[in-house]
Amino acid sequence: MSMGTELLGFLLCVGGWLLTAVSLANNYWRVTSFAGSVITSTRQYQNLWQACAEASTGIRNCRRFESLLALEGYVQTSRALMIIALLLGLASILLSVLGLKCTKMGSMTEQAKGKLTFTAGLLFILSGVCVLTAVTWYAARIVQEFNDPFYIGTKFELGAGLYLGWAAAALVILGGGMLCGSFRRASTPRNKRNLFSPMSKPAIATWNVYNRRTYI
User: What is the DSSP track for the chain?
Assistant: First the structure.
């Protein structure tokens, strides 16, 4: 049971980590459409790296954000959190591979492997929290600008990249929790004898005989 939980949690975390990379590379973090006339229609979209405009004819023009310091604070923070999440996920994958019960690494004990798995689970959860914070903050800013009647800029809507980020965060946090839970179940002692179990009756009976008491 513990090995199956570990494998399932590991696969969920790897899938969430890959989905985090896809979300970071996705162009559609915020999307809008603007109809200038009956003939011309332009759609604008942005992510953490660039802003693009695509005409109905299929011609697309993109402009990269040249200066990091010129970006707004929430964009800088979201970009940093997503990169940190990817680095934490990569480190967690390496630790998980070393700590899984189905892998053999020299003379490493089960207790040491369990600690590695638990540490990897915690790092995966931290990675998921970073992704969740980044996409939620970015989405909250989009909603705030969209509902602000005094905002004079272009109003955007939530793009597919944000939904990919939310899905990635859910998978990583769930998988990390399963890894941590697997270690706790594995570390629970199983060979403690219960005084009320049938196996304990002979021992109690012997004790009662030596003490000249009647065993019921």
Answer: -HHHHHHHHHHHHHHHHHHHHHHHH-S-SEEEEEE-SSS-EEEEEE-SSEEEEEETTS-EEEEE---STTS-HHHHHHHHHHHHHHHHHHHHHHHHHHH-TT---TT--HHHHHHHHHHHHHHHHHHHHHHHHHHHHHHHHHHHHHH-TT--S---EE-HHHHHHHHHHHHHHHHHHHHHHHHHHHHS---PPPTTSGGGHHHHHHHHHHTT----
